[in-house]
Structure prediction request, 227 residues.
Amino acid sequence: MRGKSLLICVILAGAAVMGYRWLPSYYNPFVPLSLDDPPGKISQFKLRRLTPEACTRLLSEANQKRLIQTQAMANSAGDCPLSDVVRVRNFGPVTLSSSFIASCPLALSSALFIQQQARPLTKTMMGSDLTRVEHLGSFACRNIYHRPDARRSEHASADALDISGFQLADGQRVTVLAGWRNEKTQPWLQALLSASCDYYGNGLGPEYNAAHANHFHLGMRGFGLCR
Prediction:
């Protein structure tokens, strides 16, 4: 019996090694993230474990592929010091209501979310191209809900973006506040918020609490909490 058990273990180990060797890179959690990796839990795992150097490299590649346009910013001091942040100008063909400050993880996650999910979902569910994202900002040196005894908000480190609405090529403008209660646009907005789970640490929307009735809070803390 011992010999048979040992043989089974050897066979299983060999199969595991061969499976690892032939596993497609986007299914292999130990292969570095590629911008072409499909959305999913493995890509999310890779995205969340990026080193600062790897994030900077991928963000540069995303700029070259015109998934995003960023501008480097100088480090800053003060109550909420910032380092290695960028100013996001656009997401390629998708413009912004204004530029915003972002950490590298937030910028890269947002570029992938817009390219891989927001644009295809908009085309499929709304029948038109996504052309513009409206937002309420990213960086704000404050505590959560502005409470003096609370911990620092993700916004204090430029690790969160508050999206308030979208514009489509056919002229439609959909705000989170009004669109969430509209039977035509609610399924699409719900799909967008749900899809954000594969890219951000947390995605909070109108059903989370009253403070998020008019926007999606997309932040880097946590691991795929969306509600």
